[in-house]
């Protein structure tokens, strides 16, 4: 592009702006050296009857400086984002093996071990139905029906046994809650203490995700409480 400009007899300000627009739409980036070469060529071959205005000259220099500064800032922000991602991964690695309070009902239990959960009932309930499922098969493992509940948080405990009192295999389970209020059946979100099995970076959400079940991931922002 430099040779093409050098062979012209002169280059007006409008022609130079058109050349810049065309070069900006291409794949090649205009570096400092190429810009100065273009500017020198423009000054050498400008039309004596229509020379470049001082304002246009200063504006082009300022525009180039601004673009170069923005690119440098972008590179710095990308490096900062990469560093923050590494810090989050290191922090997430420290959560592996610990339990976190998450909304969704997934937890590790069974084999007679006590598993804890909770449900928030701001308006109380006429009846509370607690169910535990095997998330892999969808089979019902345990179900308990409780009577009237007062407003507030209700603790949900499961002893790792099925409806026949037999211990079930230890593994990942899902706890759900339904309430009867004003004669209608409603779903109530369950919060459980789930063990973190692994962590990964979610490129779409640009945040860390925690595996709290067999292939079930939640965002780090969804964690309400961290336990041992």
List keywords for this structure.
2 domains; single chain; 228 residues; alpha+beta; disordered N terminus; 5-stranded antiparallel beta sheet
Strand composition percent: 25-35%
Chain-averaged pLDDT: 76
Succession of helices and strands: HHHHEEEEEEEEEEEEE
Oligomer classification: single chain
Number of domains: 2
> What is the fold named in CATH at topology level of the largest domain?
Immunoglobulin-like
Q: Could you list the spans in which at least 5 consecutive residues all have pLDDT below 50?
A: 1-11, 24-28
Give the termini distance in whole angstroms: 65 Å
Secondary-structure-based class equals alpha+beta
- Per DSSP E runs of 2 or more residues, the count of β-strands stands at 13
Query: Radius of gyration from the CA trace?
Result: 33 Å
CATH architecture of the largest domain: Sandwich
Helix content: 25-40%
CATH class category of the largest domain: Mainly Beta
Helical segment tally? 4
Give me the side-by-side strand order of the main sheet.
Answer: 6-3-9-1-13
Could you give a short account of the major beta sheet? 5 strands, antiparallel
Structural notes for this entry:
The protein is an alpha+beta fold and 228 residues long. It has 2 domains: 2-92, no CATH class; 99-226, Immunoglobulin-like. The chain contains 4 helices and 13 strands. It has helices at 2-6, 13-24, 32-45, 54-93, and strands at residues 99-103, 106-109, 115-121, 127-133, 140-146, 152-158, 171-181, 184-188, 190-195, 198-202, 207-211, 217-219, 225-226. Strands 6-3-9-1-13 form a 5-stranded antiparallel β-sheet, with no helix packed on it. Strands 2, 4, 5, 7 and 8 form a 5-stranded antiparallel β-sheet that branches. Strand 7 and strand 8 (184-188) form a beta hairpin. The chain is elongated, with a radius of gyration of 33 Å. The two termini are 65 Å apart.
């Amino acid at each position: 592009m430099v040779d093409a400009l050098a062979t012209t007899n002169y280059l007006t300000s409008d022609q130079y702006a058109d050349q810049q627009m065309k070069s900006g739409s291409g794949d090649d980036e205009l570096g400092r050296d190429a810009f100065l070469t273009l500017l020198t060529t423009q000054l050498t071959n400008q039309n004596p009857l229509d020379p470049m205005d001082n304002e246009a000259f200063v504006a082009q220099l300022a525009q180039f400086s601004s673009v170069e500064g923005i690119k440098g800032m972008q590179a710095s922000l990308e490096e900062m984002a990469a560093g923050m991602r590494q810090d989050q991964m290191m922090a997430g690695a420290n959560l592996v093996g610990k339990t976190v309070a998450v909304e969704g009902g997934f937890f590790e239990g069974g084999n007679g071990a006590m598993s804890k959960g909770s449900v928030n009932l701001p308006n109380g309930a006429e009846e509370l139905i607690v169910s535990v499922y095997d998330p892999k098969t969808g089979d019902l493992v345990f179900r308990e029906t409780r009577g009237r509940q007062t407003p507030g948080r209700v603790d949900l405990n499961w002893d790792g046994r099925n409806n026949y009192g037999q211990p079930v295999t230890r593994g990942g389970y899902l706890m759900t809650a339904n309430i009867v209020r004003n004669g209608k059946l409603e779903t109530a979100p369950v919060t459980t203490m789930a063990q973190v099995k692994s962590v990964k970076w979610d490129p779409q959400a640009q945040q860390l995700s925690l595996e709290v079940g067999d292939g079930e991931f939640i965002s780090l922002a969804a964690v309400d409480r961290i336990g041992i």
